[in-house]
Specification:
The protein starts with a helix and ends with a strand. The radius of gyration is 22 Å and the shape is globular. Helix content is 80%, strand content 1%. It contains 18 helices and 2 strands. The chain has one domain.
């Protein structure tokens, strides 16, 4: 996408019709999120055709990979927020420098974590309580799929850079190519060649390697205002400090939440392979209906980020409120439809033919879908706090949602009410609802309006003069941390 189009995106976000701004960012992100979800759904479908143990194995260890991914995503989330605020303030060279700092940090992190996880896989699977054939499949899958992390982070960096500029179309097309490749490789490796869980893992790695390579090439294009440039990759301490101050809370919150998911998996596995398979199917299918809200939440972060950088807080709040209303309305209607037992049963039957698995998965899906409208509050309000740089708020809520509300509800329903596996299902919806209410209350306090970082903007005349400066010798003092 040409630079002029990205300038037009900035003008739309800062001055144009807000509904159009929301949809122009949210729709491609929604489609992109759907494509990302399809990576797991395709694996789930084909593994479901092979057997319950293979499906349970992947559902058991997926949170391990997600812990690492979510910690690393703290870096890219911080980058997206900061780049958006720089662009809103008209500081394109600072945005470019920030993108290069993010790239360097994320790649080092991805490679180191993949290597460590590869070595520790055996101990992790054993700790999760898996044994026999399930343990074997879990080890094979995790040891292989963990090497998709550098490729995944490359695509995430590309998405963060472009989304911060209001361009969510290119990341969408990039992931579309990856999912098409994954859909071809999964049956080839798993069924035709008989590689089983190894086939699922290697298909995922290769399907992410191709778009990652394309993303890297596109990020090197110097015709774009924000691109990778070796002259900008030297260490800038102030920017690294800011990345850590914004990104570390997101990283801790996300990884802590995923660790909670890991322990949830361990609790679910107590009820057997069928319950573990049902838990995974229900979560993945439910994620489909919340995809539009994921897109809207991402659009909130971008819209709020750019308007905060431009000091238009009232417009940032308008974008948030409109987004939250649309999200809640959509999820309420969609949830009422999906929660009908005959519909939820028909959907989960696509992924498994085992009667026990289908029954539990349909029950789980019906309960989650009925209450999923609370995700509309949660996702959009999280986007508001992320866009303003208040990631410490989302970190706290993410952590308490799992470690306090979910496990407390799980204990109460299981030990006091003796609800069996349904205690897991209700712990999910109760914790999500409580967290959404708390986030909304925090929004009403006005905390999000307090500056997290200070960015000195430029007027248009100054920006024109800056275009004539030497790019390689550029240093900016525009970014300062607040006390």
């Amino acid at each position: 996408m040409k630079l002029a189009n990205k300038d037009a995106n900035r003008d739309l976000i800062l001055n144009g019709n807000m509904y159009r701004a929301i949809f122009s960012i949210a729709v491609p992100v929604m489609i992109n999120s759907f494509l990302q979800t399809m990576y797991n759904l395709v694996d789930t479908y084909w593994l479901g055709q092979i057997g319950t143990k293979q499906l349970a194995a992947i559902n058991l260890v997926s949170p391990v990979q997600n812990i690492i991914i979510n910690f690393g995503n703290g870096i890219t989330v911080a980058g997206s927020v900061l780049i958006a605020q720089f662009i809103g303030a008209g500081l394109k060279k600072d945005a470019k420098s920030m993108a290069n700092q993010i790239f360097k940090c994320a790649m080092i992190f991805a490679l180191c974590c993949a290597a460590v996880c590869f070595v520790l896989t055996g101990g992790i699977v054993s700790w999760l309580g898996a044994s026999g054939e399930t343990a074997h499949h879990a080890e094979v899958y995790l040891r292989t799929v963990i090497w998709d992390m550098p490729f995944l982070f490359m695509v995430n960096i590309f998405s963060a850079v472009h989304q911060a500029q209001g361009d969510t179309v290119r990341p969408m097309f990039l992931n579309f190519g990856g999912i098409c490749l994954n859909m071809l490789l999964d049956p080839l490796f798993m069924i035709v060649l008989g590689w089983n869980t190894f086939g699922a893992a290697i298909a995922t790695v290769l399907a992410k390697a191709v778009p990652a390579t394309i993303a890297f090439i596109l990020l090197l294009n110097r015709n774009n205002a924000v691109c990778l440039d070796r002259s900008y990759m030297h260490i800038e301490k102030e920017k690294l400090k800011t990345i850590l101050s914004i990104g570390l809370p997101t990283a801790i919150g996300g990884s802590t939440m995923q660790l909670g998911f890991l322990l949830m998996s361990r609790n679910v596995y107590v009820y057997g392979d069928a319950a573990m398979a049902a838990y995974g199917i229900g979560n993945k299918v439910n994620s489909l209906i919340t995809l539009p809200v994921t897109g809207v939440g991402s659009s909130v972060a971008t819209i709020v980020g750019q308007n905060t950088g431009a000091r238009k807080l009232d417009r940032a709040e308008l974008g948030y409120r409109l987004s939250m209303r649309m999200s809640m309305a959509f999820l309420f209607v969609g949830g009422m439809i999906l929660s009908r037992p005959f519909i939820s049963t028909a959907i989960v039957s696509i992924f498994s033919k085992e009667p026990e698995v289908v029954g539990m998965a349909a029950d789980f899906l019906s309960i989650m879908a009925f209450w999923c409208f609370t995700n509309g509050i949660y996702n959009t309000t999280s986007g508001l706090f992320q866009g303003t740089g208040h990631t410490e708020v989302t970190m706290t809520i993410d952590a308490t949602r799992l470690w306090v509300f979910r496990f407390l509800t799980l204990w109460f329903c299981g030990s006091i009410l003796h609800m069996g596996v349904r205690s897991v299902w209700y712990s999910v919806v109760v914790s999500n609802g409580i967290s959404a209410v708390i986030l909304y209350v925090l929004y009403r306090t006005g905390l999000w309006r307090k500056p997290r970082i200070k960015i000195e903007g430029k007027d248009e005349e100054k920006q024109l003069k800056d275009k004539k400066t030497d790019n390689n010798g550029y240093r900016s003092n525009a970014l300062h941390r607040t006390a």
